[in-house]
Design brief:
Layout lengths: L11 H12 L3 H10 L5 H10 L11 E9 L2 E8 L5 H13 L5 E4 L4 E8 L4 H18 L1 H9 L3 E9 L7 E9 L6 H20 L12 E7 L7 E9 L11 H17 L1 H21 L4 H12 L9 E6 L2 E9 L13 H9 L5 H24 L4 H15 L4 H10 L7 H16 L3
Antiparallel strand pairs: 1-2, 3-8, 4-6, 4-7, 5-6, 8-10, 9-10
Helix pairs in contact: 1-2, 4-12, 5-7, 8-9, 9-10, 9-12, 13-14
The structure holds (R)-mevalonate.
Amino acid sequence: MQLISGYSKLSKIQKLEWLAQQASEQPTAFVDELTSYWHRDQAVQKRFDEFSENTLTNFYMPYGVAPNVLINGELYAVPMVIEESSVVAAASQAAKFWSERGGFKAKVLSTSKIGQVHFIWPGEYAKLYVHFDDLRERMLDNTALVTKNMRARGGGITSLDLVDMTHIEPGYYQIRGTFETVDSMGANFINTCLEEFARTLKEWAARQPDFSEAERQPMVIMSILSNYTPQCLVRAWVECPVADLGHFDDMPPETFAWKFQKAITIARHDVYRATTHNKGIFNGIDAVILATGNDFRAVEACGHAYASRDGQYRSLTQVSLEDGIFKFWIDLPMALGTVGGLTQLHPLVKRSFEILGHPNAQQLMMIAASLGLAQNFGAVRSLITSGIQKGHMKMHLLNILNHFEATPAETERAVEHFKHHVVSFSAVRELLEGWRVTASKPA
Ligand code: MEV
């Protein structure tokens, strides 16, 4: 691979051809393959190209739904975009299971988001603090135009505080804003406000008569929203009498509930297990976040920070067994949007919202949290009963068969065979090779 300058200025096909020459021994086939994934409608393709930079083609991911997701009495089929096998199946199975036991309940506990201007100022906190009401007023005035539409929709800047951070670094202060962004994720809105606060701070400080020369020049380090949104919190839960859990193969409901509780306790205390446990939760959540055009990196980062909020990384789900009632829940901060960003641009995201009945941001938070809970219930159920490999390997088998381009007849035969044999890549290869050699021998 060679260094190149001006790559971004090349046309799409020039970018592709350059890369093909650099990376592939068969440049023509390389270009043909990548262009074969272009959308047939040029306008749609142009839109995809413009989501990002140096776009060459589209990367396909499976898009499916988990049906029978009953949340607060309303039934949803939830769109999920995920490449991992068994995730949609597990979510669907858990959703069906709970739909027969009252479904998921969910509520949004709070919806505010935070943004910070980090700055260095060489004076005493008290001196800045006495002037802060004046500064706050100017910041609100100077952002009035930016916040106008948001305020009309019921959102805006809900508080602005000066935070003393000098215990961390001499002269380090923050302006901490809280924001309500209604149905938008609000990143652009918050960041625009913050940059205006920073500009106002500098302009205002320069004109303070009782400030020293140095105090008139605060040094803004950065202005950026926080993806940690513990006050943008949703809770989802399921509950039923232990006896109503029913039997899991041979396992009676009491044993199941007992083992389930132990599994959650382990994930609350052991970071190795907690990480895998929460990864399973995000299997469900990320899939919904992707299908609805939201920012899964932000949601994950926030979820993992929240999982460590008391200093120990813990399971995001909890369970209780009181008075014979099995209750299983998740509390999760999530900043989601149903307007703005990709939500009106990506054709499949628009379809996702259609499938979900056009939820608002709070409803989407409840749907995503319920899917996370469903996923976790499905995973823990498998882990404490049959183990996960049984289900996983069934799906994995299909992937391996696809890899070897098995015919429908071979697939059917192989699925039957592996009901009684251990699935592995080499076992599938050997089986197919055996059949194919036999089939090619003259009779
Ligand atoms: C696999 O993607 C997710 C699980 O490992 C989650 C878990 O262990 O809880 C099955």
